Amino acid sequence: MAIAAGILAVTPVQQSYAQYVDGVGVTPEILQRCEQLKIPRTQCNEYTVLQAERIEIAKSGEGSGTSMLATESGQMVVFIGILGAIFGSVAGAFFMMGRKTKQVPA
Q1: At 87, which helix (H) or strand (E)?
Q2: 2: burial class by Cβ within 10 Å (0-12, 13-18, 19+)?
Q3: Cα–Cα distance between 75 and 81 in angstroms, integer?
Q4: Which of 45, 69, 91, 93 fits 58 for a cystine, CB–CB 3.0-4.6 Å?
Q5: How far apart are CA 52 and CA 38, in angstroms?
Q6: What are the sequence ranges of the domains in the chain?
Q7: 72 neighbors 66 (Cβ within 8 angstroms)
């Protein structure tokens, strides 16, 4: 085991690259869309374009992520307030139940 670990530590490791390195394999249409969406050229590929388009759709008020990406903070504040009330009341109930119990002397 030690010999194998030593050989692996000394042997140079070939760097593996993703499918799209520095725009290689990216079509001109994708590069143009990356410029429109302000995606850096080094990160430009089909996947990042699709993700940026999904975020744009969610921001426009369509799609399933609308409530979490809403531009108005009022919706998020109400959502957090409701969750705080629910979890706070459950925690308060457990606290009150714990204070009512009697400890049995050992």
Answers
A1: helix 73-100
A2: exposed
A3: 10
A4: 69
A5: 9
A6: 10-65, 70-100
A7: no
Q: What is the DSSP letter of 105?
A: P
Q: Would you state the pLDDT for residue 87?
A: 97
Q: With DSSP H G I counted as helix, E B as strand and the rest as coil, what are the percentages for the chain, rounded to 5?
A: 60, 0, 40
Q: How far is CA 44 from CA 16, 58, 101, in A?
A: 18, 21, 62
57-60: Cβ within 8 A, 24+ apart: none
The answer to whether the predicted template modeling score (pTM) of the entire model surpasses 0.90 is no
Distance of CA 28 to the CA centre of its chain: 28
Three-state DSSP state, 6: helix
